[in-house]
Q: What sequence folds into this?
């Protein structure tokens, strides 16, 4: 094993390489492009025995990915943001094919307004598709979760494709030390893909992904996908235990950091969660009992593990790097459902922040703890807060001045400005 | 934790500088995080890259707002507010500027609390700062003082290997020169606090007011606001028209300038808009009478300030 | 060019690979073409399907195919073909599939996908030289949803979305021309009612490599408005009137495989279809009928 500095994008490519992916359908989009360029370079140099094909769109890319997996090869592909949305019809469709493969999504906020930096609305749009979702917080996790994802996806008890999510910029272009496992050790952990019942051949005719008429059969097929996704909770534990034995890195569906005696916990996903760890360390140094709970797995939703981690805390600050317009934070909503009616459940304080790469500063983490503690004291969940500062609005007013936003409003009675 | 920012222009190797330093730190047993920050802007535009290094896992992420060391590869960036070179410089922060001017000039000009050092850039290198990345990384490593030359050399070789042996050799030569030059200042950069922020700061959160869609949609209600962006700051070389040789032709330079930065005045003479000229030099290449010359931006600025004297 | 195996009608297969029992309408011209194509291609075929009428060929648990089938989406069947083709090649190359288990990959699409939404993925597959057959059954409208106008709908035809006195204002797109402009390995127009011509073309296409278009006009009793029993006659009239030229592109040249002289007046083709009845009733639209005839004549003038 060697430990080297690689970007999150390179870590994703290493995951595909060590998994010995046969096939990489591709389409470029910032900030994912380095993944396919890296794989293309390795294929060109003869270091990876795979075929890469650039399709005409992400919609086509996902179709080719699903079709190749359904034909019986190991497939890796990657996209981001608008690309994931452009492919969304096929995200839902190929999940129903029950053909396993891994898709790296480099999270980037969605249009409009079009932008480059990350939040999680892109990957959450795939939330109900049947794809399982694993969310990385470090470059090491990007690699390791990619390998775990293949085992999980290809398991007979699951057979669903998986998205491994990494944040654009904060992971994709950031180098961190990553242990690159020995290929032989990965081969022992992840044997060659056994297509099982999948595949097309002259001697074995099969009609895949056929239509159904009637809600009864349709419900059966969809419920079975749900059952497979629920199975993935237990299968993940087995696969992660095996991974931990072999590589010494142990992954649970939910990471708990300094939570044992925590009164207040942060709950958040992705790379910004390491910033929360820093805040936890500083608050602990100041004598406050604060911890972090981070779902690595969003689908299946690890509800029991989250209950285990959170029941007994007094207050929880849920930080959503996403926004469901007219509702609020998605993770907050899901967590509320998981804790509904549970005795001694903590009071949840909802925060939305980090949209479009907007930083969440240490002082904001500290302030969120104060809000959660006050909520716990009063027993009243506070009104959800959109993280935005006076100075940000002041900057926004300058931009609006250049854009002459007031001109659009001029002479228009009754506007809310 | 050490926090270092490298500022330069797209194409000047700031990502390479950050990677060389990051790899050298890593080779010296540090945990490391390094990243470039690109926007939508291009070659010549101000960019930066950063390195964090610590003896334990690094949880901090994103842009460094309290740097221990800021390295500026292109001194023309210092006065540009949007380049953000001066952001977060504290009393212990070291500023290293690659420049043709003396340190005293910069100390006088900037009036910072912390130390200012200069990395001398020879006149012939100033227009094309191709090798400045490795020099910046080497100077930074020496100022930090916890990285050996052997580790830096290995890191330089590793990061530049894809560019070929000649590039590696030339960068090592220049890197070594910078390394040696900063021997007297070894260890000047002091490791910052583990945590970047103080617990007593409070965020000035506000309730965002509702505003009607005609204000709150991402629309610009006035034409050509892009001219407020001074892309002339991207320029490292400048086209200068010799009006004695300019034939007032059919304005080839004006038509072919991609940035609409050459207008023709009422006399029929082309005038270069230096606030927006990016220095691509297409006008120089296409001028039928070879009436446009290429002058290094620094020289041109110097000449301007001489002229401005009473 | 080798001699065709199909010289006379009696050379055509009399037993058919495509199973009966599908949900296609009685008298479907598309199904007629598909079953004729399948007979020549043989069962070592995997159909990759785009959303359309034929998606309902395989409805769980019933399939008419003796070979294989994969439904994808409306826009991306050629990308599905890419994935299947590449995966089969990889499996054979890596020794995980015996070479004699390999399959011919065939996209099966309607005109709604082929002339519109599917063009991007089709263009990409041609760009990449994908080794596949692209079989389009062209019933000149979004027939599966009730015959709304598609980019393949002929000028003046009544559809569910163009029901005014003028019918469809647009003109049928030249999909064959789009393919030929991209220099594919092969392209041909066919119709199920000319089975010998169809069989010879499939026989040729079958052994080629690269992108190959088979564009089949598919007279549609439900969408065009005629009695199912008249489908064969409508199809023959489409050819004899010159509305549907039978041609092939091979080795850089377009050759017409059937040149009728004299051609039947187009009126005889139009008058039998409900979708053109407004050209004859309540009063004859002579101007439109002459214009349609003139366009057909102009096309054939260029053929010689």
A:
């Amino acid at each position: 094993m060697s430990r080297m500095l690689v970007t999150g994008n390179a870590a994703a490519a290493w995951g595909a390489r060590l998994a010995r992916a046969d096939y990489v359908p591709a389409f470029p989009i910032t900030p994912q492009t380095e993944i396919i360029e890296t794989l293309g370079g390795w294929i060109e140099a003869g270091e990876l025995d795979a075929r890469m094909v650039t399709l005409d769109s992400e919609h086509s890319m996902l179709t080719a990915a699903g079709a190749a997996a359904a034909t019986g090869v190991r497939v890796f592909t990657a996209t981001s943001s608008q690309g994931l949305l452009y492919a969304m019809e096929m995200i839902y469709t190929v999940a129903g094919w029950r053909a396993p493969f891994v898709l790296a999504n480099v999270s980037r906020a969605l249009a409009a307004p079009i932008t480059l930096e990350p939040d999680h609305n892109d990957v959450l749009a795939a939330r109900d598709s049947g794809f399982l979702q694993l969310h990385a917080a470090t470059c090491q996790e990007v690699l390791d979760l990619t390998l775990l994802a293949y085992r999980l996806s290809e398991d007979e008890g699951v057979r669903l494709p998986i998205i491994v999510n990494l944040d654009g910029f904060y992971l994709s272009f950031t180098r961190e030390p990553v242990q690159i496992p020995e290929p032989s050790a990965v081969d022992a952990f992840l044997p060659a893909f056994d297509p099982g019942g999948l595949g097309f051949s002259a001697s074995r005719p099969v009609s895949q992904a056929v239509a159904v008429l009637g809600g009864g059969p349709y419900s059966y097929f969809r419920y079975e996908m749900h059952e497979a996704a629920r199975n993935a909770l237990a299968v993940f534990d087995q696969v992660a235990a095996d991974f931990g034995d072999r590589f010494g890195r142990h992954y649970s569906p939910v990471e708990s950091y300094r939570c044992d005696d925590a009164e207040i916990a942060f709950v958040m996903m992705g790379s910004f969660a390491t910033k929360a760890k820093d805040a936890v360390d500083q608050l602990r140094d100041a004598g406050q009992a604060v911890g972090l709970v981070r779902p690595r797995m969003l689908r299946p939703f690890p509800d029991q593990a989250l209950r285990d981690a959170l029941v007994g805390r007094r207050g929880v600050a849920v930080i959503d790097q996403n926004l469901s317009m007219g509702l609020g934070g998605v993770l907050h909503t899901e967590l509320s459902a998981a804790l509904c009616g549970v005795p001694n459940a903590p009071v949840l304080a909802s925060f939305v922040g980090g949209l479009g790469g907007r930083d969440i500063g240490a002082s904001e983490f500290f302030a969120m703890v104060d809000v959660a503690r006050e909520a716990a004291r009063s027993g009243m969940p506070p009104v959800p807060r959109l993280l935005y500062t006076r100075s940000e609005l002041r900057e926004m007013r300058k931009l609006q001045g250049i854009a002459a936003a007031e001109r659009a409003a001029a002479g228009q009675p009754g506007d809310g400005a | 934790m050490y926090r270092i920012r490298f500022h330069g222009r797209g194409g000047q190797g700031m990502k390479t500088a950050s990677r060389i330093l990051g790899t050298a730190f890593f080779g010296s047993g540090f945990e490391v995080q390094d990243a470039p920050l690109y926007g939508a802007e291009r070659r010549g535009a101000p960019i930066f890259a950063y390195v964090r290094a610590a003896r334990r896992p690094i949880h901090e992420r994103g842009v460094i707002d309290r740097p221990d060391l800021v390295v500026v590869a292109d001194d023309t960036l210092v006065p540009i507010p949007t380049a953000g070179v001066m952001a977060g410089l504290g009393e212990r922060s070291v500023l290293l500027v690659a420049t043709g001017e003396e340190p005293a000039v910069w100390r006088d000009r900037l009036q910072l609390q912390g130390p200012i050092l200069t990395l001398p850039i020879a006149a012939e290198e100033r227009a094309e700062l191709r090798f400045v990345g490795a020099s910046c990384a080497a100077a930074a490593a020496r100022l930090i003082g916890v990285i050996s030359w052997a580790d830096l050399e290995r890191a330089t070789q590793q990061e530049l290997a894809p560019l070929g042996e000649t590039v590696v050799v030339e960068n090592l030569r220049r890197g070594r020169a910078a390394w040696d030059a900063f021997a007297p200042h070894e260890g000047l950069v002091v490791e910052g606090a583990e945590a970047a922020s103080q617990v007593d700061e409070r965020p000035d959160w506000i309730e965002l007011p509702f505003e009607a869609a005609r204000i709150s949609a991402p629309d610009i209600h006035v034409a050509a606001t892009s001219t407020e962006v001074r892309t002339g700051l991207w320029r490292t070389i400048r086209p200068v028209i010799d009006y004695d040789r300019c034939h007032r032709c059919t304005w080839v330079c004006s038509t072919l300038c991609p940035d609409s930065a050459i207008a023709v005045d009422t006399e029929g003479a082309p005038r270069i808009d230096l606030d927006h000229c990016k220095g691509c030099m297409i006008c120089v290449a296409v001028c039928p009478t070879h009436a446009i010359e290429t002058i290094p931006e620094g020289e041109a600025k110097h000449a301007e300030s001489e002229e401005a004297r009473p | 060019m080798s001699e065709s195996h199909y010289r006379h009608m009696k050379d055509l297969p009399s037993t058919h690979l495509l199973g009966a029992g599908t949900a296609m309408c009685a008298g479907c011209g598309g199904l007629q073409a598909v079953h004729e194509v399948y007979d020549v291609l043989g069962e070592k075929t995997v159909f990759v399907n785009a959303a359309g009428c034929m998606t309902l060929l395989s409805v769980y648990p019933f399939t008419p195919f003796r070979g294989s089938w994969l439904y994808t989406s409306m826009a991306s069947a050629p990308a599905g073909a890419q994935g299947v083709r590449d995966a089969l090649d990889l499996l054979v190359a890596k020794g995980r599939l015996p070479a004699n288990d390999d399959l011919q990959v065939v996209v099966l699409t309607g005109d709604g996908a082929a002339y519109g939404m599917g063009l991007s993925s089709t263009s990409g597959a041609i760009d990449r030289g994908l080794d596949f057959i692209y079989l389009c059954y062209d019933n000149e409208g979004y027939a599966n949803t009730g015959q709304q106008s598609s980019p393949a709908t002929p000028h003046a035809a009544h559809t569910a979305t163009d029901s005014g006195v003028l019918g469809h204002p647009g003109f049928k797109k030249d999909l064959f021309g789009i393919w030929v402009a991209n220099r594919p390995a092969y392209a041909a127009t066919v119709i199920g009612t000319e089975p010998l011509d169809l069989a010879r073309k499939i026989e040729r296409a079958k052994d080629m490599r690269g992108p190959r278009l088979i564009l089949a006009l598919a007279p549609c009793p439900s969408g065009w408005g005629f009695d199912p029993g008249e489908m064969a006659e409508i199809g023959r009239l489409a050819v004899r009137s010159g509305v549907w030229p039978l041609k092939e592109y091979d080795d850089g040249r377009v050759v017409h495989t059937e040149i009728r002289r004299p051609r039947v007046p187009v009126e005889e083709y139009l008058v039998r279809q409900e979708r053109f009845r407004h050209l004859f009733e309540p009063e004859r639209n002579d101007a439109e009928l002459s214009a349609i005839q003139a366009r057909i004549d102009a096309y054939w003038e260029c053929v010689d």
In short: Residues 2-194+211-247 of chain A form a domain with the Rossmann fold fold (CATH 3.40.50.970). The interface with chain C takes residues 22-23, 25, 49, 51, 53, 55-57, 59-61, 63-73, 75, 89-90, 93, 199-213, 217 of chain A (CB under 8 Å). Residues 413-417 of chain A have pLDDT under 50 and may be disordered. Residues 12 and 128 of chain A are 24 Å apart (CA to CA).
